[in-house]
Amino acid sequence: MKRLGFYLVLPIIYLISYLPFGILYLFSDFLYLIVYYLIGYRKKVVKINLKRSFPEKSEAERLKIEKEFYHYIIDFFLETLKCVTISQETLKQRWSIQNDAILDELLAEKRNIIVTAGHFGNHEMGNLALSFLIKYQVKAVYRPLNNKYFDKFFYDFRTKFGSILISMANASKEIGKKEDFNYAFFLVNDQSPPPERSYWTTFLNQETGFFTGIERFARQYDMPVVYMCIDRYARGKYRVNVELITKEPNTLPEGELLEIHARKLERDIKANPSIWFWSHKRWKYTKVNGEIVPVSYK
What superkingdom heads the lineage (predicted)? Predict the structure, then answer.
């Protein structure tokens, strides 16, 4: 059944992928009406996340962010399918990078680096663009799909411009691997981690846990850590901004690296809230009076 489903959907993927961007976004506007007004995909989750994150905003302001988010998430999905057939030339017209001199300096020192980010902006398209926007070899952690046919399909197009994908299960083995090239190891850190093994801080007005792997790996392998923000400044056009967190992770107090990551991501979300994934159940747990408690989305 999985194979049959894959081959039934494959022509639709290619049909969408070959659409010019103008028509793609007209199709996105149509799908938005269906997904938001008829299906209401995870609308309750989005509303709860926005209300808890922005209690100072009026209901009308949160509703505006909500609708902009749904417009964006449809764009994101269709842009990801567009990546199946997109060329480097097209990406170069739509993607740029700022402050990449930071990366050039670290590369000149022949240091492998960790890049930390969030699900902010189109990270799927960004994976393709960064493979030629930066001089480092891109290594990115991903979660394999259950359907092996779709998994291979998405793996192939995600790596077509040279990025190396590493499954989450192999991340700890790969991050300190000696190679004959220097690499940037990308780790996204804004999902819900195991609460007992998290770094806890106030994030978007809520007690929030973060995965600790970025700090542990950086300390263990003495790797500089860089934060990247993928900002959408126009429809289908993105700008990557690079910020150095630290060149010497072992000189920072424990938790400081993760705190800096949280503050930078929070800053970017507040500046452009519609392009973060509000439909995720990010806050499955929180802390009340120092105790970890589950969060209800009902």
Answer: Bacteria
Q: Which of 93, 91, 49 is nearest to 69 (CA)?
A: 49
Burial tier of 102 (Cβ tally within 10 Å: 0-12, 13-18, 19+):
middle
Indicate the pTM of the whole model: 0.95
Give the C-alpha distances (Å, rounded to integers) separating 143 from 188, 199, 245, 255: 11, 22, 26, 26
Quick: pLDDT tens for 215-233: 999 999 999 999 999 999 9
Read off the pLDDT of residues 116-152 as tens digits, 9 standing for 90 and up.
Answer: 999 999 999 999 999 999 999 999 988 888 889 889 9
Residue with tokens 């952690």: 141
Residues counted in the chain = 298
Number of domains in the chain: 1
Residue 173 has pLDDT above 80, yes or no: yes
Q: Which helix (H) or strand (E) holds 141?
A: strand 137-142
- Contact partners, residue 50, CB within 8 Å, separation at least 6: 62, 65, 66, 273, 278
125 burial level (CB within 10 Å; 0-12, 13-18, 19+)? buried
Spatial contact of 74 and 32, defined as CB atoms under 8 Å apart: yes
Q: Which domain holds residue 146?
A: 2-294
Residue 226's DSSP bridge partners are 115, 244
Q: What does the DSSP 8-state code read for residue 276?
A: B
- Bridge partners for 201 per DSSP: 208
Residue 1 has pLDDT above 80, yes or no: no
What pLDDT sits at residue 286? 92
DSSP letter (8 states) at residue 120: B
Under the phi-then-psi rule, with left for phi > 0, alpha for psi from -120 to 50, and beta for the rest, what region is 76? alpha
Return the pLDDT at 143. 86
d(CA 148, CA 287): 38
